Amino acid sequence: MKKLMFPLLIVLLLVPNFVLAQDAEAGNKSARILHKKIADSLFVLTHNNTNSVLYIDKDYALIVDTQTSAAGPDLLQYASRLSPLQPIKFVLNTHYHKDHTGGNKFFYESGATILANLGTHTNLLTSINEAQIKTLNQERTELIAQVKAEGNSERGQKLSRLLEKNVFENLEQDLEYSVLTYTGGLNWELSGESIEVKTILKSHTSEDTYVYFKNKNVLVTGDLFFSKAYPFIDLAYGGGIDGFMKSLDALLLSCDDDTMIVPGHGPIASKNDLAQYKRMIEYIYKGVSMDYLLNKSLSEVKSNKAITAQFDAQGFGKGYVSTSQFIEMLYAEADKKYSKRQK
């Protein structure tokens, strides 16, 4: 049982290269891995539009994010072929979602250390114990009601002591690998690169990480940036639109006009692409909020195609998040922000 403490990354080419490999977990399906060298010793490896980044230093290599559990073995095989002399000693997770952490166990079994911020580790554990945690929270709610009913009686005092226990103390499922956690960020000095690792709160999820390779001027954003697609804001796991916009500001401050930006999903981008992405979200959120304040229902806001038309025409709604889903997220955030004003 796991005690959960709350609060709570052959041939080197400049052009893309594909490898097809049998996936042990996916039967006859195969995982297609695309790799592209974007700087000396730095590669983007892509599967199903999801990006991992491999950096090969003098003594060892590290990889940012590990794809899904289905693609994980192939990613490990491919990354090892790109780095045959330097072992992949570290995995750095940008957040908890399984399309970025599913391959962790394969890298761990090969000898790599998994690094994640504390919130990502918490979310990983929570996500595999959701049913149990839901039950425990229900029991806790009932216990709170009983404590209120009993007051300062002897039984009430006993119930209060039960309430003080950590309801997340003995979860049934544990991760299949160990995680070395950090808070805030890391400064990583290697022989050939200086790496800044920073944590963003309440954005895409409750805690996300972005990674900046200073010498290469490459920024790896995780899912703080979906290139040419609407973003996913994980409201159930502490994400929020206000924090998401602040995270984009932080990313913009971390780069310059020459920075190469590797998003969590989609093609490599520039600072200008990131700035346009931020303006797009601001524009749509403003439109949704205005309709909300006019007392329009979610269905009515979805029917107002003018809010997203120019971006839908560019294919933004054909990514992981559809136009309808994105509007739902933003409407929920508008409701959270403005509901009291409407009463």
Output the number of helix runs: 11
Rg over CA atoms, rounded to whole Å, is 22 Å
Do you know the CATH topology of the largest domain? Metallo-beta-lactamase, Chain A
Low-confidence stretches: 1-29
CATH-defined superfamily of the largest domain: Ribonuclease Z/Hydroxyacylglutathione hydrolase-like
Helix content: 25-40%
CATH class of the largest domain: Alpha Beta
| Shape call | globular
Q: Strand count, sense and closure of the main sheet? A: 8 strands, mixed
- Mean residue pLDDT: 87
Tally of DSSP β-strands: 13
How many angstroms separate the termini? 46 Å
Give, in order, the helices and strands. Answer: EEEEEHEHHEHHHEEEEEHEHHHH
Strand order of the largest sheet: 1-2-3-4-5-6-7-8
CATH architecture of the largest domain: 4-Layer Sandwich
The structure class reads alpha/beta
Overall tally of structural domains: 3
The percentage of residues in β strands lies in 15-25%
